Sequence to fold (248 residues):
Amino acid sequence: MKIAISGKGGVGKTTIMALLAKQLQSNGKDVLVIDADPSPHMAQTIGIENPETITPIAEMTKMLSERAGKVEGSPFYNINPKVDDLPKEYMIEKDGIKLMVLGAIQTAEGGCACPENTVLKRLLTKLLLSPGQTILLDMEAGVEHLGRGTVAGVDILLVVVIPSKSSVRTAKKIHKLALESGIPRIAFVGNMIDDQDDETFLTSALGEKPIAFFSNSADIRKAERSGKAITDEAKDSFEAAQLLLNSI
Fold:
């Protein structure tokens, strides 16, 4: 099973993905989380110590350049770089959850970062298509990743939405682009829910009921502010995580 998650910035997609990872691990699953957000926070969320010391693969410019080197005797770069040997070397494990911090190339010295992005996309595709694990892909906020096709190969895309009009607009746009991308299943997940009115608002505004609702948790806010693992503090949210997994 390959699960991707997306949504407007600030809706809590990383938190929900971390809760899913923890619940899956508790259920005995082999879990790999890929943090593909340009500003990765998954390491802190699941309680990895000193997350600021982790270098995302996207920032390993020398390695990426070497992997995407020019084809010998040609002015062109290799569009099918070897990445088979990378995954285990660049994984971190915490309490049975494997994490790969992919990041994203945002700027390129001297011009286009296309060769380096080719390596990242190849790595991402290979991981997404590998059997034997539950793979959770934490995408960047917004809709750009859908235009680049970096979620190809996932079984389901979860679109996180909070009870606000701006979040709903972004969620519906993501849903539309995901359909056009050929993702087999797309589902909305409500977050930061205070009461039944919030659930009713989202169901009406989206035109369908989200498959799960996560409450507006004070424990999660306190854990994030103190730098603690959200998965250790948000015990009241694991029931919603299990209900979401049941729906999937």
